[in-house]
Amino acid sequence: MPVLEMIRTYPADITLDRDLMADTVSALIECAQACTACADACLSEPDLAMLGKCVRTNLDCADICDTTAKVLSRHTGYDAGLSVAQLRSCIVACDTCADECAEHAGHHAHCQLCADSCRTCSAACERLMDAMITT
Amino acid sequence: MPVLEMIRTYPADITLDRDLMADTVSALIECAQACTACADACLSEPDLAMLGKCVRTNLDCADICDTTAKVLSRHTGYDAGLSVAQLRSCIVACDTCADECAEHAGHHAHCQLCADSCRTCSAACERLMDAMITT
Amino acid sequence: MPVLEMIRTYPADITLDRDLMADTVSALIECAQACTACADACLSEPDLAMLGKCVRTNLDCADICDTTAKVLSRHTGYDAGLSVAQLRSCIVACDTCADECAEHAGHHAHCQLCADSCRTCSAACERLMDAMITT
Amino acid sequence: MPVLEMIRTYPADITLDRDLMADTVSALIECAQACTACADACLSEPDLAMLGKCVRTNLDCADICDTTAKVLSRHTGYDAGLSVAQLRSCIVACDTCADECAEHAGHHAHCQLCADSCRTCSAACERLMDAMITT
Q1: Residue A11, in any domain of the structure
Q2: Is the pLDDT of residue D1 over 90?
Q3: What percent of chain A has pLDDT over 90?
Q4: Signal peptide span per the entry (chains A, B, C, D) (predicted)?
């Protein structure tokens, strides 16, 4: 797993478990890509007129997951307050996108896959946030 | 002001004041650029060895401001919960970066300008967040 | 102009004119925001079914302008080959988005403004690229 | 592989091989994360003063790979000219970052891993670009 290999080479201390960090970052970058792809797949659906809100929710979730992955890929000058605040926002973005995509999952396989990816990502962020708060 | 011109063309209702939204988005994209430039200026300083944390803080603030600007530039399917959560994270990022840059502002003009930009952006985000919570 | 103020504080040499660099970066971040806003405005149009390609073109242009602005905001270890290659891609993205938005400009004011912003940005990138090639 | 699963659900034609597209997007998002992590690891190295250019090169490569992954994750209104131009820039960014990181690979394991990731990504982009040009 490339994220885990990279984090193992970080040359200073990390107060959190490196496997947990790597799992979360991996979930975030997979979710961001799924949301980008789902937004684009919506744009090619015959019922695009019904999917405006879904595209918007996908775009927000993609941007927020990408940024959260970057923040969590940095360990120099770690600031728990900032990481937790960004994780909170990311959990809201993932849950919102999962709910919206779930409404279209019966018609569109990309919405089903994207909703699954958002749920996985939200759960990973929750686990990491819990570890940060109790550390 | 280009951001304000664009928001005036949005074809549906926006529950918040369009000038307030545009001011905040403008502050966010200016702050993101200032942080990107400050990080790079630090990389060319003779005392780079002292600036590792400052670069990291700049990079986080740039990414978070960019993403917050994108979320706030979207009005379709507006979700106050998500916007407020992202604004909260952005305020933490701006305040953290302003504090860190302020420590180097005596030696580096880019840190002084960047700290100013972060304070302006944090204040703009606070105003918009207050308006969102009370709307 | 905040971009120009920041670039003036860069502590080492820049082989290119700082005003020209600042103008281009400003055009890029304005264009990126216009494209993000235009994509979202399209999502709220009654004729969204006709605007799938326009949204896609807007999203590409926003991402590419954002990244080009970041690359051009960095001067440490300047590499003309990379800057020129990214500018070339950005000019294609801006021209493509301007052409697509122009097709909808009669019906949608946001497409008109966005097309204008893309043309301005493309011209700014051409000027800077010419300066880089001849420097 | 999540990227491949998502691309299989795209509801319209894609003129290029879906496995090839998915492999390239996966290489891009892995490379972007490696570059973000390598930049941050550099910031915590005792010899940071020697690594200013390496951090800059990492940041450019991360931004360009992220944007290229997004462009290639979109298939609606596919434009070969834009995709090829962005791939060309990405290949320059990856090759430049690989060369720079290779200079520090003897001292820093993160630079070795990052250089490997950049080489893999550059080769994947070359293969896809060839397929686009001959299609």
Answers
A1: no
A2: no
A3: 99
A4: none
Q: What percent of chain D has pLDDT over 70?
A: 99
- So what's the pLDDT on residue A133? 95
- What pLDDT score does B17 carry? 96
DSSP chain C: -HHHHHHHT-SS--SS-HHHHHHHHHHHHHHHHHHHHHHHHHHTSTTGGG-HHHHHHHHHHHHHHHHHHHHHT--TT--HHHHHHHHHHHHHHHHHHHHHHHHHTTT-HHHHHHHHHHHHHHHHHHHHHHHHHH-
Q: What does the block give as tokens for B91?
A: 């305020």
CB contact under 8 Å between C56 and A49, yes or no, is no
Q: Any chain D CB within 8 A of the CB of B59?
A: yes
Residues in B closer than 8 angstroms to D58, CB to CB, are: none
Distance in Å, alpha carbon of B78 to nearest chain C alpha carbon: 11
Q: Up-side HSE of residue C2: CA atoms within 13 Å toward CB? A: 26
**pLDDT (0 to 100) of residue A1:** 67
Range(s) of the domain holding residue B121? 16-134
Is D100 among the domain residues? Answer: yes
Per-residue pLDDT, averaged over B47-73, amounts to 98
Q: What angle do CA A104, C49, A63 make, to 5 degrees?
A: 60
C36 belongs to a structural domain? yes
Residue D135: the pLDDT is 80
Whether A43 is in a domain gets the answer: yes
Token pair in block for residue C115: 């097309």
Task: For residue B58, give the CATH number of its domain.
Answer: 1.20.1270.360
Q: List all chains that touch chain A, counting a touch as 3 or more CB pairs closer than 8 Å.
A: B, C, D
Is B14 in CB contact (< 8 Å) with chain A? no
Q: Can you tell me the mean pLDDT for B38-48?
A: 98
What are chain C's partners, defined as 3 or more CB pairs within 8 angstroms?
A, B, D
Burial environment of residue B22 by CB neighbours within 10 A (0 to 12, 13 to 18, 19 or more): buried
Residues of chain A with pLDDT under 70: 1
Of A40, A44, A52, the CB nearest to C43: A52
The residues in B 38-57 lying below 8 A from A, measured between CB atoms, are 52-53, 55-57
Q: Which of D9, D10, D21 to mutate to test the interface with A (most CBs of A within 10 A)?
A: D9
Q: What is the mean pLDDT of chain C?
A: 97
CB contacts, 8 Å: D52 with chain B: 43-44, 48
D78-105 pLDDT per residue, tens:
999 999 999 999 999 999 999 999 999 9
The pTM is what? 0.98
